[in-house]
Design goal:
422 residues; mainly alpha
Amino acid sequence: MTDARADAAARAVSDAHRREWAFVLAATARVTRDFDLAEECVQDAYLSALDAWARDGVPAKPGAWLTTTAKRKALDILRREQTFRSKLPLLVEPDTGPDGDTMTDIELGTDEIPDDRLRLIFTCCHPALAREAQIALTLRLVCGITTGDIAQAFLVSETTMAARVTRAKKKIAAARIAYRVPAAAELPDRLDTVLTVIHLLYTTGHTAPSGAQLVRRDLIERALDLARMLRTLMPDEREVRGLLALLLVTDARRATRTDADGRLLLLEEQDRSVWDRNAISEGQRLVLDALRGGNPGRFTLQAAIAALHAEAPTYSDTDWPQLLALYDALLRAWPSPVVALNRAVVVSMVRGPAAALVDIEALERDGRLAGYRYLPAAKADLLRQLGRLDEAAVAYRAALALADNEAEQAFLSARIDEVTGA
């Protein structure tokens, strides 16, 4: 075994982990009917791949190889368990629920949900768990997002997020929660959490919290696939249409978000002629459809905001007063400090940077965005516009200290050089 083959195997395993984890875990869970066992077998399959692929070469279909290996490991464990239970029936009591029926940890054999990954997401969004625990557990185990990246999405430390995931798994075991696919009538009750998971999956791909690349295409494409499948599964749900519209219109700008050297480009710097007009048109149709029939939800309002940006021929032609009205509606529907921060940026375009700075300073006093890199970055930009360059440099440095993505770090460093005259 050469070092070159070992390196190639390691790269292939890393790539397969990014691209195939959700598929492999979902397929294995259908065999094990036990979420923890499925995760253990999939992890073992990835470890086995390091040696096998270095020795025999990377297979043509890495995902299929991993799935087959994980399933075989799972079946071996299940056979051993079955043998043990058959030989010691008096010593091993079956797990039973409150009604005395034997409990099954995971039951995925249903045609209500057409895709294993989407099926498993609905399964993991169990109402017995706290909402944040549902989302974090699903992102970590089903979507393969790292604990650190999930922590950034929730604006908490990595240690705090790891503890949340651990507590959720312990609650599943202690409460003997039966993991099963909900019936069709139960899906709407889990829908908002599922939409949130898909949105956070997309957001993590749209701007990677860490690493050398601004965008993680694998996560973006996975989120778009799931959003389209959800649209097929629940075509009458307005927020499903809103989420798909939001992802389509936002992703239409993907090719213009960095230049040829990987430098981050702001919205006003992007070449709008390169934007994907087919995706924008599809998203706009979905937005108009979702806006009909009552008060729109948070994903529909975010999609409307994205569509308004997309339809402006130039940055200066953006309808900023209408955007501010949409943000006001979004803040009422979803009183999030992140929404308030984004609204402040629009306030600067309508009422000037001094008015927006008042809102930013209120968010600083609020404290919920402490550690969120975009808060000091937004403040720094307003201070720069106001000519308060020394204060702007301090704020840019604070944002830089919080940024782990290399493209964002380079952008902030350039801004510091600009305001300090370096």
